[in-house]
Predict the structure.
Amino acid sequence: MPLKLFLEACTLTTRHPFAIARGSSTGYRRCWVRLVDDDGVEGWGEADPSNYYGENYDTVVATLKKLEPYLPEDPFDLESAETRFAQVVPKNGAARAALSVALHDLVGKRLGQPLWRLWGLDPQKTPVSSFTIGIDTPDKMREKVHEAAAYPILKIKLGTDRDEELLRTIRDATDKPIRVDANAGWTAAKALQMLPLLKEFGVELLEQPLPPADLEGLARVRAAAGHLPVVVDESCLVARDIPRLAEAADGINIKLAKCGSLREALRMIATARALGMLVMVGCMIESSLGITPAAHFTPLVDAADLDGAALTVDDPFVGATIEGGRIRLPTGPGLGVRRR
């Protein structure tokens, strides 16, 4: 008998308006996916769509209904199932990722093992996660730094006409390591102009400084950045994007909502490693149901920015946790996520 698919809508609310170079919001509509087998075992996933990639709640629901006839009769048929999903709907990564996660959760529960154990990973090798400070007024940004006291690394959103002020505000408020993310908000000239300032303020990583297609400009920025790693996010969706980025960037940022599946995320890690690149894993604004699947493969990565659930005030789930900044993986079967 085929798996049964159930969908549920929710809205996540951030503690502060979350602003990046492209805009700001406080409410994020998400879709929970539940797959149920003949024995009543449930696999859960969450779709976290981004308008930037052409997705929203309505497109997610439409995509999931379109993919429902292609659900595998055997949930262990993971590779073939994900291949079919990608063939039927080549884009819509957030929707496909939710199905991928739900299938993996179901398989883990059937086997009685957490995902990290099925992949043979060491849960003690998870990295420290950064905490993201969105664009705001100086007073609000200082308040956010105080709220992030438990996190040893801060990630600062830039890409405005007052980036120097934002950086100075953060550095005056803390001596913690800083990473910056311009969300494609700079030109190559602007990025080159910012590099001395980034070095002055002790920035340890620069994420997506330029528009996704400007790889020539990105290569110039990377060459001038010296020992400051340049990592791409919006420029890199799936594994096949990585080889053309290897000469322009030091690393990639993987997000399930972009790449469309857990198995694609693992392919991205292997591809980046083969090319000698750094690997980072990030997130959207997500609940712990959305964050935890990516957390399971963090023993394979160099850096993490999995604070999406921590930025909300109404996370309905308990899963992977962050203690002193370090990601702690659940030991329960599958995702190891439970509803509060």
Notes: The two ends are 31 Å apart (CA to CA). Residues 93-111 form the longest helix (19 residues).
